[in-house]
């Protein structure tokens, strides 16, 4: 944005928590702006992590996260892979197993980079449980939420509970794909550049409802 007192923050997934807190700091210093959250919100992240944090040990949580990540990219035999991961004693061993199952045409990262990603996701899952939006002041900034048409888990509130985060407007757009594949959709760039025509949004929502009725 050209105005030096304006901001635009774009984030994805777990980054929504960082974006919200960054916006809170900027607003406290008399900045104003908007956020674009790509399939991410505090309550949504807690829902996801609660599905995994029933695990009885850190090792079980690590395995569950790795299985969940792999399932996003390819079809797997969950029981077979779980047995292999249970035999592993270290992150290095688990990453090697993951690397072996990951689709070769998508595997552009080194094992060390994959290990760093998995460790970061694991720490996010643990940390998000301590984040309580109810104890924090609401933002004034508007929020645009981009949601995939194939969510990882259903959420009762269409805005992922973001009305509890801000006093500003919450606008919701649907993007074809799941949590991973939606990132390849050009509509995300169009939204960031404010080029997405409202008629297209309405038309897409109508098509989505027709698909549901037809199914």
Shape: globular
Approximate strand percentage: 5-15%
CATH first level of the largest domain: Alpha Beta
Which consecutive residue ranges, at least 5 long each, have pLDDT under 50?
A: 199-215
- Give the oligomer, counting copies of the same chain as homo and different chains as hetero: single chain
CATH architecture call of the largest domain: 3-Layer(aba) Sandwich
Structure, described:
The chain has 215 residues and is of the alpha/beta class. It folds into 2 domains: 6-48 and 136-193, Rossmann fold, CATH 3.40.50; 51-130, Protein Yjbj, Chain: A. It is 47% helix and 13% strand. It contains 8 helices and 4 strands; from the N terminus they run βαβαααααββαα. The protein has helices spanning 15-28, 42-52, 58-73, 78-86, 91-101, 111-127, 186-192, 198-214, and strands spanning 6-12, 32-38, 142-148, 170-175. It has a 4-stranded parallel β-sheet, sandwiched between helices. α3 (58-73) packs antiparallel against α4, α3 (58-73) packs parallel to α5 (91-101) and α5 packs across α6 (111-127). The protein starts with 5 loop residues before the first strand and ends with a helix. The relative contact order is 0.14.
